[in-house]
């Protein structure tokens, strides 16, 4: 995917005195000039019968909406407002979930989004978190967890390409087709787009669109939708509603409570049932043959309709984020670890969160970049939910000495993600001559202890300090065996780093390396001499403060060393030397300020731990073994744990709970624990 271009807008005043956006490229309105909010409610909420359908959901049921054309987000906000109203009136729906999936090729800028939504005062409580979490214009899926039971996935890029990557065991319950009119943008309404809409639909999936253009009607008919024209909004004479009927059996519209105009006959595809059946049989055989050649498949578990008991083994960043993702879905999670939380590689005093930059054309499929963007939203959201400050967004300079990017490529990054600086601009920001550099405004430091405290504060999560001996699955239950007792769960997730291979002998042993971070106390005079921003140069430098009682101390943090073929995790002077020398290679004028001398044991603190990686450098995320297995894993994060953890935990929870997934199907396959490259 190449660069994502933001929408070019013209602004006009409607009859009510409201300022509304018009697409300068397509010459079409983003919403009706008469009353855009009323139009959204009529065309998409009322015609998909969302009020009635939301109220009839069961606890732990998810309702999935697919939208073509996110635009200003007005449809989403109107839907969220309705959802919240119904949830508030129905306590039994406390664990039900709204999952809204939208595509957009030309996203609004954050400033234009805020301006467009500012006219809808009643939506302000919902618009505020959307605007705050709105993603930069970078291709791929951006998951926004906007409340405990509302998830928004915005797929930026071509709608057909985006939908082709959308995967999961769930299906779309209702479609909003809200792209610009075919007369303005006929490229969108292609046969390939409707192929994807059909693939992602299920029997009785509903659809509504303002358009009654022939290309829309014919494509829906050809893709097994039963159509109906109804009165359009305002002065518009007609619009379309539809129901997906893959076998074209007669549908009782009265039972579905659809308000159809009886004077207009629905459109039916004239294929006989036997032909549909034979086509389905051929497709199933093709799928079966394909699966024999592949080591990837989606789970095949009973649809979850009630609270589950889940064991997470390992209390590192992988285990904690996995536990939180599952607990947030209303399930009971017990975390087991042989030691205290964050006792392994993710327990450093601070975690440095910054993206590993890659070519813009590969960014949408780069797990680290996708994970970083998700993390920038996830940790602040966790802070909002718990009142515990986790992420300090500082920004940082990424020095070019270790970067393989062509400088011209950086120019195409949106400024809210990365900006190429001249030597003088970099010097002005950091206080030292570090050459040309890339400014990363969203980078920051994670207080790992506060992160663990926030996760463990969830009412659905408990922690037990116990070492696991063995696991056994029988039917739909998992038995965990400890030293003196056993306990039964619905699922177990192994987040046990190197030890994962002990429980899963069919997986090739992970590579490992020792990494040590170093930090020393600095006074105010020394702090004034330090670089004004964190630096990323293969290793990293950052200042941080730590409160001890009434007093606060300042530290300089350096890390991390990289030593292969050792299991020793005792802090060593040699690693302090490595970290300091790497830093002084960037800022040599501080050689008399930051040094390791004979008093190093007093002046320096350190923490060493073991990183582990797979042979293809990607973590394991997903189901282990057969499609009915209840054993899962999220492990082998290398040195990228805090960037990988939030998005991968959402992926694992989505796989376990039968949802649409936050990563494309190619990436899901690459992370699959059963991938052939990992076979022992």
Give a quick rundown of the structure:
The protein is α/β, with parallel strands linked by helices. α1 (36-46) crosses α3 and α4 (110-117) packs antiparallel against α5.
Would you mind describing this structure in some detail?
The protein has 680 residues and is an alpha/beta fold. The chain folds into three domains: 9-276, Vaccinia Virus protein VP39 (Rossmann fold), CATH 3.40.50; 304-395 and 442-509 and 615-680, FAD/NAD(P)-binding domain; 511-613, D-Amino Acid Oxidase, Chain A, domain 2 (2-Layer Sandwich), CATH 3.30.9. It has 21 helices and 31 strands. Strands 15, 16, 17, 24, 25, 26, 27, 28 and 29 form a nine-stranded mixed sheet that branches. An eight-stranded mixed sheet has the order 5-6-4-3-7-8-10-9, with helices on both faces. It has a six-stranded mixed sheet with strand order 19-12-11-23-31-30, with helices on one face.
Taking the alpha carbons of the first and last residues, their distance comes to 35 Å
CATH superfamily of the largest domain: Vaccinia Virus protein VP39
- The global form is globular
Low-confidence stretches: 249-294
Indicate the proportion of strand residues: 25-35%
- Reading off the top of the CATH hierarchy, the class of the largest domain is best stated as Alpha Beta
What class would the helix/strand composition place it in?
alpha/beta
Total DSSP E strands: 31
- The percent range for helix content is 25-40%
Largest sheet: 9 strands, mixed
Rg, Cα atoms, Å: 27 Å
Number of alpha- plus pi-helical segments: 21
